[in-house]
Design brief:
By secondary structure, the protein is mainly β. Helices cover 8% and strands 42% of the residues. It has 8 helices and 42 strands. Strands 7, 8, 11, 14 and 15 form a 5-stranded antiparallel beta sheet that branches. Strands 26, 27, 30, 33 and 34 form a 5-stranded antiparallel beta sheet that branches. A 4-stranded antiparallel beta sheet has the order 2-1-3-4. The chain is globular. It starts with 10 loop residues before the first strand and ends in a 6-residue tail after the last strand.
């Protein structure tokens, strides 16, 4: 620091980033102090956050303020490395020299030795004499099971202490249980992961009684995939079945020198130098404006997770009757959590085999260790009862892209949950839009959700030539970005007619031919500075569905413009791709995981539609799937829909389907669907399971009848069509799902 004030001071600095604060040591009697201190900060959200530094003079009674500076962290992230002098504000003179590094998080140990070698050469004096960290460690503490009881066979109240070297962090306490769920996360800076261990102690809330312990050498993480471990660990000095579920993730801190911006560096101040001020919140600006944006990300890591909550089976009955003498039922509902976002399903009254048929969508950034969690509860007047939990790795789901399967509920005696999950592929092909729209609008869910057609990215970089306020002062500009009924706001800039924001926003779009982007600029969300209206249909004619340029602002000066990037990605679900050809039941992705997903895809209860465009033949047809689930050891038959049925009276028939597995003729092999009133193109989407070995299933003949539900005395025709399938001719492990022609037979 240089040139504070005349006389002498004992300066020290206070550095703030978000809620984290650091205070330097004070330097006695010095107007040009050198602190040479280093601080490391984990930043969870970059947009709008600032680094703030204040300098004070240490006094016995009250410390005197010497000046301050602020810097937008988005600028640091973009530059990667800044080594500059910054002029102090609210002071008559003074500058402060900062070196700022934005470190990338690497999920591999390939560059660890380079990082350790570089850190050896960094010398730091003052209070923070330790060397820089080589990595950060995240410990996610999930739960424990079967912890030992306290004396007198009493339940403990467990808490956990997580220690790495000299740092110990504590979880919250879960009272009165030996199966606690904490769901706490802790982060540690690691200097050398080759030499450090993670120590975990589970204790009773009085900290005196130890319920179990665990040590994990960090060297184990270095040999693990993506430097991560996500598993149960057996506890030592505990009960024989005591264990704890932990997710541990290491990330190497890497300075990406190839990404460092080669911008001019402000000169060091000194005698004879021309003072060069770097304004807080602004980079060195050249006279030439950029033609296009330079976003921090190409949005490749963002995507849409589509969650179809279908049904559950064999749930535990929690509502007992007559004081527990008679077993009752449950009123189940589901809580869904992923990426800090939560959804809650409707409550199904008195049902142990509920069907929800609800759809949820969420925009996610791909991060290691993320999970999708489903918690089932029984709705009660006082306190809801736990019915089980399912966790799905987001990494595995993204790899498979699509899964349709039953998940066994954990932490309960019985129950399973049927989910259809898809990490929806993003495409930039406008010719797919019509098919995606057609497929999406045919879907029907009980929570009235309609699948999104596209993911829309908006990157607001900067504006130029904004009007001055009436007082003649420059505005403090903010941008409000809206699409449909969703709005976001940027941070408010420092006073400038050419503010810079560098902020990105995402929207789920249901019809890009109708939706519109609206950007409104204002001074501190009051005085209007100009606006932009951009119909999204304009992007459909652009290469890669992207517009990246300067736009003129309405209601402003003639020269007022805004630089932004608008990018549309169509959400081309595999199910929409399947519906392109009614006789094709699946697409062929790559890899074994995708092959497994395709097998599930063939089994899915896909709502289908009849109608004039549904069939080129005009024959009466039925769509069904037949497959054998090796995991569940059962034959699965799903009845989807019929089309082009004949009507033998003035009113359409009340249609249902019955079928039987021959040669057996008994209640175990005979089933029927619900009745669809007055419909020639009924939709059923009903699944039927038959527990039997694969060899037995191959010996069956499936006989299916489409019928009109009529009274015994009615003269109306009952049989509308018939179908027979020899299961020995099918590859049951792969499964088949298609439209079949119905034979016309008389009663």
């Amino acid at each position: 620091m240089k040139g504070v004030i005349s006389g002498k001071s004992d300066p020290y600095a206070v550095v703030r980033v978000g809620t984290q604060t650091f205070t330097s040591h004070h330097v006695d009697n010095n107007l040009n102090p050198q602190w040479r201190e280093m601080y490391e900060v984990i930043v969870h959200e970059v947009p709008g956050q600032e680094l703030e530094l204040e300098v004070f003079d240490k006094d016995p009674d009250q410390d005197d303020f010497l000046g301050r500076m602020k810097l937008d962290l988005g600028i640091v992230k973009k530059a990667v490395l800044l080594d500059e002098w910054y002029t102090l504000k609210d002071a008559t003179s003074g500058q402060v020299h900062l070196k700022l590094e934005w470190l990338s998080l690497l999920p591999s140990a390939e560059r660890l030795n380079e990082v350790l070698e570089r850190n050896k050469n960094i010398t730091i004096s003052g209070k923070t004499a330790d060397r820089p960290s080589a990595a950060i460690l995240t410990v996610y503490l999930d739960r424990a099971q079967d912890l030992p009881f306290k004396k007198g066979n009493k339940d403990p109240s467990p808490m956990v202490q997580v220690s790495v070297q000299d740092t110990t962090k504590e979880s919250r306490t879960v009272y009165g249980t030996n199966n606690p769920v904490w769901e706490d996360a802790f982060t540690f800076f690691i200097q050398d992961p080759r030499k450090q261990d993670i120590h975990i102690q589970v204790k009773d809330d009085d900290r005196a009684l130890t319920l179990g312990s665990l040590s994990i050498p960090m060297s184990r993480l270095l040999s693990s995939a993506e430097l991560s471990m996500d598993q149960w660990f057996q506890l030592e000095k505990s009960g024989p079945a005591s264990r704890i579920y932990i997710t541990v993730m290491l990330r190497v801190l890497w300075l990406n020198e190839e990404a460092i911006l080669t911008t001019p560096v402000s000169p060091l101040p000194g005698d004879g130098d021309v003072e060069s001020e770097v304004s807080p919140g602004a980079t060195n600006v050249t006279s030439k404006r950029p033609e296009h944006t330079s976003p921090d990300s190409n949005f490749a890591s963002e995507g849409v997770l589509r969650i179809h909550l279908v049904e559950a089976q064999s749930l535990i009955a929690k509502d007992n009757l007559m004081g527990g003498m008679v077993k009752g039922k449950s009123d189940p509902y589901v809580k869904i959590r992923v990426g800090g976002i939560a959804f809650k399903s409707q409550v199904i009254k008195e049902n142990l085999n509920p069907t929800w048929n609800e759809l949820y969508e969420v925009i996610l950034t791909q991060l290691p260790g993320q999970e999708l969690e489903f918690d089932l509860y029984d709705k009660d007047i006082d306190q809801d009862d736990f019915l089980g939990r399912v966790k799905v790795s987001l990494r595995d789901l993204i790899s498979a892209q699509f899964t349709d399967q039953w998940y066994t509920l954990n932490d309960v005696k019985s129950g399973r949950l049927h989910l259809v999950l898809e990490w929806v592929p993003k495409v930039s092909d406008p010719t797919r839009l019509e098919q995606i729209l057609r497929y999406n609008y045919r879907q029907s869910y009980l929570n009235k959700a309609v699948p999104s057609v596209a993911l829309f990215f908006v990157y607001i970089e900067r504006a130029h030539g904004l009007p001055l306020k009436k007082s003649g002062k420059e505005p403090m500009a903010g941008a409000e970005v809206s699409c449909k009924n969703i709005s976001y706001r940027t941070k408010v800039s420092n006073r400038s007619t050419s503010p810079q924001w560098d902020e990105a926003f995402h929207f789920l779009i249901h019809n890009p031919t109708e939706d519109t982007l609206v950007v409104k600029l204002s001074h501190s969300w009051g005085l209007a500075l100009g606006s932009l209206v951009l119909p999204l249909r304009e992007l459909l004619n652009e290469k890669d569905l992207v517009l990246d340029r300067w736009f003129s602002l309405d209601g402003a000066m003639p020269e007022s413009q805004i630089l932004l990037r608008a990018e549309l990605k169509l959400l081309d679900s595999k199910l929409a791709q399947c519906s392109d050809a009614e006789d094709v039941s699946h697409v062929i992705p790559k890899g074994e995981a995708a092959a497994a997903a395709n097998r599930e895809l063939r089994h899915r209860s896909v709502p289908t539609q009849g109608g004039e465009d549904a069939s080129s033949s005009g024959n009466a047809q039925m769509k069904l799937s037949v497959a054998y689930s090796s995991e569940e050891n059962r034959l699965v038959i799903t009845i989807y829909a019929c089309r082009n049925l004949a009507s033998y009276s003035k009113d359409p028939p009340d249609t249902y389907i019955s079928f039987i597995l021959l040669p057996d003729k008994n209640r175990n092999t005979k089933r029927k669907t619900s009745v669809k009133k007055k419909s020639l193109k009924p939709e059923f989407n009903e699944r039927f399971d038959f527990d039997m070995p694969l060899e037995e299933a191959k010996q069956k003949h499936l006989e299916v009848s489409v019928k009109n539900s009529v009274s015994f005395m009615s003269r109306e025709k009952e049989l509308l069509g018939k179908l027979q399938i020899d299961l020995s001719q099918l590859d049951l492990k792969t499964g088949v799902s298609q439209w079949f022609d119905l034979s016309h037979e008389t009663n």
